[in-house]
Specification:
Blueprint (H helix, E strand, L loop, with lengths): L4 H6 L3 H11 L2 E3 L5 H9 L7 E6 L6 E2 L1 E5 L5 H24 L10 H10 L8 E6 L3 E5 L10 E6 L7 E3 L2 E6 L6 E5 L6 E5 L2 E6 L2 E11 L2 E12 L5
Antiparallel strand pairs: 1-11, 2-4, 3-6, 4-5, 5-14, 6-13, 7-11, 7-14, 8-14, 9-10, 9-13, 12-13
């Protein structure tokens, strides 16, 4: 493993990541976060100075659990993940637009994309830290916070399934027109990540490519406490 997080991100091959996104609608990432980095993120959960808001999921009927949105400036590792993953994913996002007969719209750097968010009144950072205790879960949803959004997001497992918690699998459900939904149950090891669509993805059909709708969530945690880090690239209103 490379010595630091930016080096690990730079070693990713996005040309190898795209086929999985095309075929399955998601792509696994290797353990970009080491055990020490994961533990440091978890231990900072109680440091309220890092966060702009805390959401009790049951209050809004989102599920059972809690998550906290980071405030600016983001912690270094969160910022590095956001900035480092964006360029490669922007290229894939523009290729997907091409499949749908649309022009490329995503700039090569995160700062340029965020400037577009801010011009639309979306100025609040959206990376978040999620915590589920026994009985916790997250209903199927999409993370859209305004008219401007990035078509991919990422999630990283911060602790280890079967050691720190049981249950709590990542769920991804795809709805194709005039057919039944397709579901994926995905388990990540500590530090590993997952790239998945924020709202839609292109799928080949008899008349060219069309969009399918995806939603994601978390199955019920049956024991222990599950932590994960969500990297969303667009800011919120």
């Amino acid at each position: 493993m490379a010595d630091n997080l930016p080096q690990r991100i730079a070693m990713l091959d996005f040309d190898a990541i795209q086929p999985s996104l095309n075929e399955h609608g998601f792509a696994r990432l290797p353990a970009l976060l080491n055990q020490t980095e994961c533990q440091e993120i978890i231990e900072a959960y109680g440091n309220e100075e890092l966060y702009r808001s805390t959401i009790n999921m049951a209050r809004y009927r989102f599920g059972v659990g809690e998550y906290k949105y980071y405030q600016a400036p983001l912690p270094a590792c969160v910022q590095q993940l956001r900035e480092g993953l964006y360029p490669g994913l922007a290229e894939i996002a523009n290729r997907w637009l091409g499949l749908l007969g649309q022009s490329a719209v995503y700039p090569p750097y995160l700062s340029e994309f965020l400037a577009r968010c801010h011009a639309a009144g979306q100025e609040r950072p959206t990376p978040l830290l999620l915590k589920y205790e026994e009985g916790g879960y997250n209903c199927l949803h999409q993370d859209l916070y305004g008219d401007v959004y990035f078509p991919f997001q990422a999630v990283f497992a911060l602790n280890e399934k079967e050691r720190d918690f049981t249950g709590g699998e990542f769920l991804l459900v795809e709805q194709r027109p005039r057919t039944q939904s397709r579901g994926h149950v995905i388990t990540l090891r500590q530090g590993e990540g997952l790239i998945f669509p924020t709202q839609h993805r292109p799928v080949p059909g008899s008349r060219g490519y069309y969009r399918t709708t995806l939603r994601h969530g978390i199955s019920t945690v049956t024991a222990g406490t599950r932590y994960s880090l969500g990297i969303i690239f667009h800011d919120a209103t």
